[in-house]
Amino acid sequence: MPRNKTITDDEILAVARSLFLKSGAKASTRTLAKTVGISEAVIFQRFGTKEDLFFAAMVPPEAQLESIFNVQPGHQQVTTNLKSISLQIVVYFREVMPVFLSLIGHPSFDMRTFLQRHTMPAMQISDRLSAYLNSEADLGRIRKDNVAKAAAVLLSHLHNLALSETIGSDQFIDTEQAVSDAIAVLWEGLST
Fold first, then answer.
1. Contact 15/32 with Cβ under 8 angstroms?
2. Dist. CA 118–CA 112, nearest whole Å
3. What is the rounded distance in angstroms from the CA atom of residue 18 to the CA atom of residue 152?
4. What does residue 191 show for φ and ψ, rounded to 5 degrees?
5. What would the pLDDT profile of 149-163 be if each residue is shown by its tens digit?
6. Is the pTM for the entire model greater than 0.70?
7. What is the pLDDT of residue 117?
8. Of 27, 57, 32, which Cα lies nearest the Cα of 42?
9. Residues 119, 156 contacting (CB under 8 angstroms)
10. How does pLDDT run across 134-184, given as a tens digit for each residue?
């Protein structure tokens, strides 16, 4: 008679993600098994290979889009809304950056295959940011002609802030000030 599962696949994947983030793809399945209280054989029964386990564990977390874009077009100043959105995006990028860097660093990683199986949260964020800016443009609060460029530049800046923190840049970054400065510069191209 088979035993009941005492630990879920999601619980195994959470511990595996932690180990892979700490040690990279070379993290030991023996250590994982010991940590979660199962045998290595169970890991391979559930996930097949160590590579399959790695890719299952290292799926980037989904962006909480409703929380990030919790602003109303036409309410508050556009710059205030952009700052709120931007700070939430940086929080998300901080969470996803270590996972994504580990993922793309794996020798078997293939972006095309990854995109066939998963949605890139950064693309969803880009679409939502553009939609927000287009809504503000439709209300006449910003210029329509620079929306796509402004969204791309702002996301690139926010991504760079999180990347710099993740790779341990020696330079201290005041994230809130860096976001405010970027929005101030962008505002010159967006304001009506």
1. yes
2. 10
3. 31
4. -65, 145
5. 999 999 999 999 999
6. yes
7. 84
8. 32
9. no
10. 999 999 999 999 899 999 999 999 999 999 988 886 677 889 999 999 999
| 40-81 pLDDT per residue, tens | 999 999 999 999 999 999 998 899 999 999 999 999 999 999
DSSP the chain: -PPPPSS-HHHHHHHHHHHHHHHGGG--HHHHHHHHTS-HHHHHHHHSSHHHHHHHHTPPPPP-HHHHT---TTSS-HHHHHHHHHHHHHHHHHHHHHHHHHHHHSTT--HHHHHHHS--HHHHHHHHHHHHHHHHHHTTSB-STTHHHHHHHHHHHHHHHHHHHHTT-SS---HHHHHHHHHHHHHHHHB-
Neighbour count for residue 13 (Cβ, 10 Å): 19
Residue 87 structure tokens: 């700070």
Cα 102 to the center of its chain, rounded Å: 13
Tokens 């088979």 correspond to: 2
